[in-house]
Amino acid sequence: MGVFVAIDFEFKDRYTIDDLISLVTLLRAPDGCKWDRAQNHESIKKNLIEETYEVIEAINKESIEGLREELGDVLLQIAMHSEMEREKGNFNFDDVCNDICQKLVVRHPHVFGNVSAVDADEALSNWDAVKQQIKGVKTQTQSMRSVPMELPALMRAQKIQGKAAKAGFDWDNITGAFDKVKEEINELLTAMEHNDKTEVEDEFGDLLFSVVNVARFLKVDSEEALTKATDKFVKRFEVVEHLADEKGISMKDTSIDELDLLWNKAKELLLDNQ
Description:
By secondary structure, the protein is mostly helical. Helices cover 73% and strands 0% of the residues. It has helices spanning 17-27, 34-38, 41-60, 64-88, 93-106, 109-112, 120-135, 140-145, 153-166, 174-194, 197-217, 222-246, 256-272. The protein starts with 16 loop residues before the first helix and ends with a helix. 8% of the residues are buried.
C-alpha cells in the first residue's frame, strides 16, 4: 500500500496567476508528479500547438466557456516552459511578463511616444518599423527569413508575400496575380507530361504559392479559407453519403457522373437549410 505524502499547498475557492506558478513548481518538485518532472521543452512543445488550436476552435464555435478553459490550458504551457528555465537559473515567469510589457511599450510609439497613427494600418506599420530596427533587420529578405518555417505553409506563404509587397515586389493589381496562376497551371501540366515527380512537386508548389497571392489581393486569409472549404466538403460529403444510402447506391461502384449529381443535390439541400 502506497504512502500518501502531503505537499505544502493551500486549497482555495479561487486561485490567481501566482497560484498557478506555485502549482507548476510543486508539480515539478522532487515530491511532485513524476510525469511533470519528466517533461522538457521538446517533449511538450506539441502540447502548446494543440492547445493553441483548441483556443481557435473555441473562438470559431463562439464558445465563451470553451475559450476561458482553453486559454487556461495555453497559460499552463507557458508556465511549464517558464518553470523549466527557472530551474536552470535562466529566467522565470516574471521575466517573461516583464519582456512582453517592455515590448508592448516600445512597439507602440503612437501610444507611449511622439509618433502618430491615424488608423490601424499605420499603427501596424509603426510596430513593424520598431521591430525591424530592434532586430537589426536591414533588408526585406531578412524580414522574410524571420517568418518561422514552423508556421502552416499557407500562412507562411501569405506572410512572406506581404513582406515582398512592402518592398515594392508586387503586381499592380489582381489581374497579374490571376495570370500567374494560369501560367503555373500550364507549367504543372507540362511537368505532368514529363512524368517527373520532382518537377511535378515543384510546379505544384508554385501553383499553390500563386493562388495564395490571389488570396492576398482579395484580402482573404488563405489558411482560414482552406479550412472552411474543407469543412464545407465534409458536410456535403456527409449528405452525399446519406443520399446514396437512401437510394441503395454503393459509392465505390458508382460513376463519378452519378456521384456528381448527388453532390449537386447535397449542395442544394444544404443551401435550403441555411
